[in-house]
């Protein structure tokens, strides 16, 4: 079996090389888009190493503090996959960590102190797997089937894991309703990642499906510096002060009209607003994607500030805030990117400014397509997990078929090109040609040409978009197909 791995990897990388595709006329290849270009796609079958018939679920990212390399951590039904996306056009599948028990459609992962923490729902005594991400630096022959560095089993299944990185506590949500915390959050001290310590839990308000926990730095000065838990609890939003794990204080609960299933939400960066998604209201009431914004100026008395209606009937799933942008995994409608710079307004508080639809078949109301998104990589690249299609790496406004600057005196023919393109200058001689990929890496150069025509061989280039610099002065864009 080991002899098969290098062949699989070579096949995989070769096919990924054809993935970078600019968003032109509303499409990046087969994928509807606006403002976001496809850098690469890693299929589900590759992420699962060709085993079984898996699906994708959660996603998170990790940046190696030693060298700045970027990684996608993709949760699958049968495993957790690790992908080096430092070169987003040519990502490298490094290997996977198999499930601790059986397959699960709900596997979630978060990162703290260079370790991944993984839980799974409805799979018996899965507990929490802990994996040292620094092991990805030198993995040897690819791909690897990894083993966990620690396995915490003081709970069985769980729907999700939340980590407050500033305190070193993990909050396990969606545990067994018949367990010690009645489905409410379990608290675990992970300050030493491979030695998790039980720190109790909170059973008083029942099942908590998802949550965010922050060290509060918002406008309500009464709670400044406190550890605030905001949970999406199926039929309400629950706000807790969990600073003292032995004395949890309930601050508020939030309900709203036309409630389906209170699923997941995220604070704005200033901790003033909370953006909430209800997973089944589109199914139950027949309206378009609905996102609710709550004003938490007073944590003890939250109020509904505004409601955003999306352009499709697709179901909203996981959403995350980065500055003035809200990145929403919208199932069959793919990723939707909303400008929230006007979030205080009662109307038009959120405005869609871009999208990348990973499920081109339809935008209807069903559970397919984009499960989650991670927009926090320093490169600005965005990683998306799609249930059927695996990992997508996209980026805003990087690719185009327009020239960087007009060059009327220089022409390429053909462009797009397959085997070669002739560069022709009707004025000065061509002295040098350099070719760069979209990451700014030079992949080809030639000097001392001194002719008005030069045939550039492109057959050896991967399909995609390139920048061609002529005479260190002009740059044109070339598509290789």
From TrEMBL:
Keyword match Membrane: no
Pfam families, alphabetized: LVIVD, Por_Secre_tail
Coiled coil stretches, renumbered: none
UniProt keyword terms in alphabetical order: Signal
Signal sequence interval, chain numbering: 1-19
Gene Ontology CC terms: extracellular region
Keyword Signal appears in the UniProt entry: yes
Domain Secretion system C-terminal sorting: 414-480
Protein name: Regulator
